[in-house]
Amino acid sequence: MPITRDEVAHLARLSRLALGDDELDHFAAQLDVIISAVARVQEVAAEDIPATSHALPLTNVFRPDEVRPCLTADQALAGAPAAEGDRFRVPRILEEES
């Protein structure tokens, strides 16, 4: 059952869209194609096929977590343009509040 021009006009009114006569005809044809495609997909879906989120099974591709030694403060700050104590020194971006 094709979607009618009146149904498109009703949807446009509900959506608060101002559509001209040529747009109503154009959208009616497009919506009919979309609804037909959805109907075909529903015909293909079978009850004996389990629902899946992916076509292929997913596996974890990440390496396992390992504890490794980290940089010392001196090593981390070695390439910094400015340091103060054991911290990076950055330009002030906010004014202090009184």
Q: Can you describe what's shown?
A:
Helices cover 40% and strands 4% of the residues. The protein has 98 residues and is mainly alpha-helical. It has a domain at 5-44: Histone, subunit A. Strands 1-2 form a two-stranded antiparallel ribbon. A hairpin with a 2-residue loop joins β1 and β2 (87-88). α1 (5-14) packs across α2. It is elongated and about 75 Å long. The chain starts with a helix and ends in a 10-residue tail after the last strand. The mean pLDDT is 87.
Bulk shape: elongated
Question: What's the tally of helices?
Answer: 3
**Structural class from helices and strands?**
mainly alpha
**Major sheet details:** 2 strands, antiparallel
Rounded mean pLDDT is 87
Q: What is the CATH class of the domain at 5-44?
A: Mainly Alpha
Order of helices and strands: HHHEE
Number of strands: 2
Second rung of CATH, namely the architecture of the domain at 5-44: Orthogonal Bundle
How far do the termini sit from each other?
71 Å
Catalytic activity: L-aspartyl-tRNA(Asn) + L-glutamine + ATP + H2O = L-asparaginyl-tRNA(Asn) + L-glutamate + ADP + phosphate + 2 H(+); L-glutamyl-tRNA(Gln) + L-glutamine + ATP + H2O = L-glutaminyl-tRNA(Gln) + L-glutamate + ADP + phosphate + H(+)
Pfam families: GatC
InterPro entries: Asp/Glu-ADT_sf_sub_c (IPR036113), GatC (IPR003837)
EC number: 6.3.5.-
